[in-house]
Write a structure and sequence with these properties.
mainly alpha
């Protein structure tokens, strides 16, 4: 068990190192039009009155709580934004590795660890994924993806004892 934990820690740290290295040049980027609009509304309205005074119909509450907190703590041009977004992107890549590895083991594929490792690494460095690290208003994409992967991981954990499957069947027959 300790060796498995050590391996998973190494995988996470490797992904984190790759993410920090790859996206370092973007550390001051990402504050574009919609973020600047959010910032102006935060200054004018504050968080609690954001929706009543900004005229916004945006329903991304978590995003505003998160960006408001980072903005108040660090302002716009701070390395903290880069660090937080890289950590979240690394968590998403690591969870992708864990979920894919479990799925490949269930389907009895050869080399599930290697396949999952490189698939998650490709996710981490893919040009299609850079938006969530670079563009500061994309927090909801990472959070939704992380929640989805945690849900799949929970289902895979329950797959071992079929409790979840039997619970679903019971719910459908009620």
């Amino acid at each position: 068990m300790q060796q498995k934990t050590k391996f998973h820690t190494l995988v996470f740290c490797f992904y984190l190192l790759v993410c920090f290295s790859l996206y370092f040049i973007t550390r001051n980027a990402g504050f574009v039009d919609d973020y600047i609009g959010f910032e102006a509304n935060y200054d004018r309205c504050g968080l609690l009155h954001y929706y009543s005074c900004s005229g916004s119909t945006n329903l991304r509450f978590f995003q505003h709580v998160f960006t408001f907190a980072l903005y108040r703590l660090f302002g716009s041009e701070h390395i903290a934004w880069y660090v937080v977004y890289c950590i979240l992107h690394t968590v998403a890549a690591y969870l992708s590795f864990v979920v894919l590895r479990k799925l490949l083991k269930i389907f009895e594929q050869q080399n599930p660890t290697e396949i999952a490792f490189f698939a998650a690494l490709l996710f981490l460095i893919s040009p299609y994924q850079t938006e969530v690290v670079v563009w500061r208003v994309c927090i909801q994409y990472m959070v939704v993806y992380i929640c989805m992967l945690l849900s799949v991981l929970l289902i895979l954990q329950e797959h071992k004892n079929y409790f979840f499957t039997s619970l679903l069947l019971e719910l459908f027959y009620l």
